[in-house]
Structure formats: C-alpha cells, structure tokens
Amino acid sequence: MAGTLVPSVSRDTGSLLARDRHTTMRQVQSAMVAGLIGLAAVIAVGVLWIILGYVIARGLPALNWDFFTKAPKPYGETGGGVAPAIVGSLYMLAVASIIAVPIGVGAAVYLSEFGRGRFATVVRVVVDLLAGLPSIVVGAFVWSLVVRRLVGHYSGIAGSVALAIIMIPITARTVEEILKLVPQALREASLALGVPLWRTVLFVVIPAARGGIITGIVLAMARAGGETAPLLLTTLGNMFFNFNLFQPMAALPLQIYTYASSPYEDWHTKAWGGSLILILLIGILNLVTRLATRGKQVR
Amino acid sequence: MVQQGEVVGAEALRRRQRDIGDPAFAGAVWITAAGAVLTLALLIALLLHDAWPAIRRYGFGFFVHSTWDPVFEQFGAASFIYGTIVTSLIALILAAPIGIAAALFIVEYAPRWLREPVAFSIEMLAAIPSIVYGLWGLFVLVPVMRNGVEPALQAVLGPIPVLNRLVAGPPIGLDLLTGGVILAIMILPTVMAVSREVILAVPDLQREGMFALGATKWEMIRYAVLPYARAGMIGAAMLGLARALGETMAVTLVVGNSTTQIRASLFTPGYTIASAIANQFTEADKAIYFSALMNLALVLLLVALLINLLARLLVFRFVRSPAGVRV
Questions:
Q1: A92-144 confidence digits (pLDDT tens)
Q2: Which of A115-124, A269-278, B303-312 is predicted most confidently?
Q3: In a 3-state reduction of DSSP, which class is residue B75?
Q4: pLDDT at B133
C-alpha cells in the first residue's frame, strides 16, 4: 500500500529538467486545491453573513416601541407588535426548562457518576437518538399525547412539553461532558472525608461544574427558543396576550411564520423584525456562554 | 483502562447500603435517566398506535401511490417521500463537499488567528432557527432562484438530452431545487463540525510522514488525511442527511407545497414528508386523515432513528479505533 501512495516522487527517473517540471505541476495542483478549499470556506462563512445582513437590514426598520409592546393587529391591518409572542415564547421556555432541566441534569448525573452496564449504554444511545429526532416528529408526538389525550385542545403547556423534549437530550449531553471534566481527586477527597456519595455529587461535583452546567442549559434554551414546527402542532399560536397555560399561546417563531406566509408587505417587515429579535437573543446567549467559558476549565 | 469514577461511585454505594441517602439519590437520577428512555419508547408506541388505522387501511400502498386526496380518503405518500429524498440529496451533494472542504480549511490551512472566527461563524450558522432560514429563503433565495439560477441552469442544461428533463418547466423558484439549496445551507454546519472533529483526530505523525516523503500539501491531505478520516466523514455526511430529512419550517416556506404528481423536473413544486405534516396538520378534519399524517411522522421517525444510529456507529468507531491507511 505504502508504495502506491507516493508515485510522483519515486516513479520519476527522468532528467532533472523533467523532474522539475513534474514537481512544479504538483505544486500548482496543490495550490489550486488550496484555492478551492479556501473558496469553500469563504462560501460557508459568506452565507452566514449574507443571511445575517439581510435580517439586520430588513429587520431594523420594523423595530419601534409598538413592536415590543403591542399585540398584533387583525388580519391585513398595519401597525401593532409582537409583544404576546415574545411573552409567550419566554413563558413556554420557562415552563419547558422546569420540566427539562431536572430530567436532563439528572440523566447526566446518572451517566457520569453511576453510568455503567447495559442500561447506561441504552440511556446514552437514547439521548443521542432523542437529539437526532426531527422536531416535527416531537410535535406530532406531543400533539397525540398532550393535545389529544391529556388536555383536549391546543395549549401552551403542550408547547412547553414539546420544547422540553427538545431540551432534554441537549442538556443531558453537555452536562455529562462537563461532569466528566471534574477531577476524580475531588470526588475521592470528599468521599475520603466520609461524605456520602449523594452529598459529594450535590455539594462538591455539581458546584465545581456549575459554570458548564449553566452553559449547557442556556444553549438548550437557545436551541428550543427558535423551534417552530413542534409549536405549530401543539400551541397553534395566538394573536392576543394569554397567560393561561391551558389555552393556545403565541410564540415568536410562530408569529414569524404567520407573518411570512401572509400577503401583506407590513407583515413581511414584521417577520424580519421578529427574526432579528430571535437571532439577537440566540446570538447573545451563545456569545455570553462562549465568553464565560472561554479558556476556563472546570476546576 | 478502568473508569475511575464508576468504581469509586459503585464502591461507595456498596459500602453505604444502609445509608438511606445514597440509594435514594441513585434511585432519583436513575428515574430521570429512565424518564428519557421512557419518553422515546412512548413516542414510538404512540405514533405507531395513531398511525395504525392508516397502516391497516393502506398498507404498503401508502408508500407506492402518489395520490393524496383527503376528500376521497386516498392517501399515498410516494410524492412526499420522493420530495424528501430529492431535496435531501440536493442538500447533501451541495453541502458535503463544501462542509468537508471548510473543515479541511480550518484544520489544515487557516492561520491560527483565522481558525476561531471561521469556526464560530459556522457554529452561528447552526444556531440560526430554521424559521429564519425559511424567511430568508422565501424573500431572498426564491427570487434569486427564479430570476437567476434556474434560467441559467435551463440555458446550460437545456440542450443536453437527458439532463434537460431535470430543468423542464417554468422556473418559479418555489420548488424542490430551492428546498434542497436551503437545506444545504442548514446542514453545512453539521457536516463541517463533525468533519472537523474527525480531521482533528488524524495523528500529526501521519501528516509529518507524508511531508517527510516530499509530498505537497494536497498530496499529504489526499493520501494521509482523507483515507484516515473517510469513515468519519461519511458519518458526518449522514448526520447532515438526517438533519435534512427532518427539517421542516425552512423547507415548508420554499418548497411550493403542492401535491402534484412525481415529475423528473427539479422545478416542480412539491412537498417533503415534514412539510406535509406541518402544513396539513391543523387542517386534518377526519380520523383517517390524522392517522395518515401520523403515519408520515412515523416514517420520518424510523428513517431518522436508522440514519442516526448508522452515522453514530461510523463516527464513534472512527474516534475509538481509526481504521485508515497507515503510512
């Protein structure tokens, strides 16, 4: 195998001039590939900035006081805002976190502190599979379980459950990684002092990994906050303020969808404005957690 | 190698059998872990249960027939399946080379100061919600496809006998091709991030060996990096594919949402499985209609599970014991 790998070097027995030309050709080829690879990177990065550029340029004109404080106007009227959608998104995200954080962190603690044997392998695979589920499938499941069987109609709580199912695997995976970074000596020191295992985990291991755990939770929230498809099947959306979890609730991504698929110019502008807010929120969350954890290992 | 944490945890647990705290704690975290497993089990069971009426009534014909007519209760998902496959393949063909090349750029070519910004930009691409891609696709990409790309493709491919069937019909922009392009952009970060991991896992000794033999940079990558990382890169592409198959909102906004028959042209407005569910779910007014949509969700679920399992197997096997050409 090794012989065939470097034909260009070993095969060439011609004159010095011919070999030089051959070497030059190889170098030209290498440079051309380098150019192509650079071009691919430019395309990949360029796409991001083009999309961000459009969202900022078209979204900024939509932002004003009303946009943040008023409810949407009836179909086809100009004016109004997306306040119920922002409130609804935050509300459902908070409830989703209440469901998802204990389960996600608990599963992570199980995997990192107790995880061995067949069941732990099953849990690991299941967490990975949950992370790979299409969000629309999660929506269909929650519709079937909560909307149809438990509550009986579209509701905010159904949306929260759907978002929670999306958050659980992300939380579990990141937190498990973080907990594994906590030095083993820390656990041993605590156990050697006669501290029971449960106190060791709760009061030594988890505090040591606090920063990373919060990062994992925030990233999961950022990811769930932008989800649209599962909400479409579970909360349906709402043009008005609603604080009742058992009624349909507005959500920012849903509002963007409604606005985008309408025929009105003013609503299109509002869709861009809503997207700008959504991206700003997610971008800030990503950036803050990235800066907070930069260069910092778990101690 | 003994996993230390497991031993310490287990032994402490054994020694403290009589202490109520430890078993209770272990039980509590076990229950949360079991909760995750139960969620997936319940999800599969419930979708299967809800899809059962449609499965029993339409059987295998559900996948073969392309007539989707809720009024006459004719449900055949062939054209949705076709739309899903076509858009995902377009996405894969566009995103896999660009994603792998971008990963190569970050690992092998970029100067140190450029690595972080490029990697961060592509990670941000992954953080953008799919509805924003959809909005951008609908108002920016669709006009570009309609007025620029698609007429150009027709001009180029038009005279070529077989290929011209791919670009037949009026270029309207809201079609399978645009759906594939928006999907390509969305799966780019997945392909890039996983490829980057596997390229980073290639030992530097491989690279140094090739350079020492007088290889150029490209020859080094071609003969030392790519064969070594091949399985992982295939896994990366498959994870991208899994994401493309299940992606909903962005595709729904640009794919045209039309239950037309299967045609060879990429300029045909169509549906993917996911966009059909999203678009029709709130319209479904009959039990059998719901059941047919649930059957679609079940298909999507099983395909996603299968591809994810396969991809993870490939990537993990690579990370654990890389099988490549050793120079």
A1: 999 999 999 999 999 999 999 887 788 888 999 899 899 989 999 999 999 99
A2: A269-278
A3: strand
A4: 94
Question: What is the pTM (predicted TM-score) of this model?
Answer: 0.86
In total, chain B counts a number of residues equal to 327
Q: In terms of Cα–Cα distance, which of A85, A136, A99, A113 is closest to A217?
A: A99
How many C-beta neighbours within 10 Å does residue B263 have? 16
Give the pLDDT confidence of B226-239 residue by residue, as tens digits: 998 888 898 889 98
Residues A236-255 have pLDDT tens digits of 777 777 778 888 888 899 99
Question: Is residue B326 included in any domain, yes or no?
Answer: no
**Is the CB of A44 less than 8 angstroms away from the CB of B132?**
no
> Quick one: B52 and B84 in the same domain?
no
Q: For the CA atoms of A8, A12, A15, A19, what is the dihedral angle to 10 degrees? A: 0
B158 with B29, same domain?
no
- Which range among A95-99, B14-18, B322-326 has the greatest average pLDDT? A95-99
Q: Are residues B81 and B51 in the same domain?
A: no
The structural domains of chain A, with segments of one domain joined by +, span 8-62, 65-293
Three-state helix/strand/coil letters over B172-222: CCCCHHHHHHHHHHHHHHHHHHHHHHHHHCCCHHHHHHHHHCCCCHHHHHH
Same domain (yes/no): B181, B215: yes
Are residues B191 and B89 part of one domain? yes
Tell me the ipTM for this assembly: 0.85
Q: Are residues B160 and B188 in the same domain?
A: yes
> Which of these, B182, B99, B176, lies nearest to B140 by C-alpha position?
B182
Q: Is there a contact between A55 and B312 if contact means CB atoms under 8 Å apart?
A: no
Q: Which of A140, A223, A257 sits opposite B249 (nearest CB)?
A: A257
| A205 vs B9 pLDDT, higher one | A205
> Are B267 and B172 contacting, i.e. CB atoms less than 8 angstroms apart?
yes
CATH of the domain at B122: 1.10.3720.10
| CATH number at A65-293 | 1.10.3720.10
Do B229 and B294 share a domain, yes or no?
yes
Percent of chain B with pLDDT over 90: 38
Q: Which residues of chain B does A122 touch, with a Cβ-Cβ cutoff of 8 Å?
A: 37
Residue B18: give the domain boundaries. Answer: 4-58
The closest CB to that of B278, out of A43, A191, A229, belongs to A229
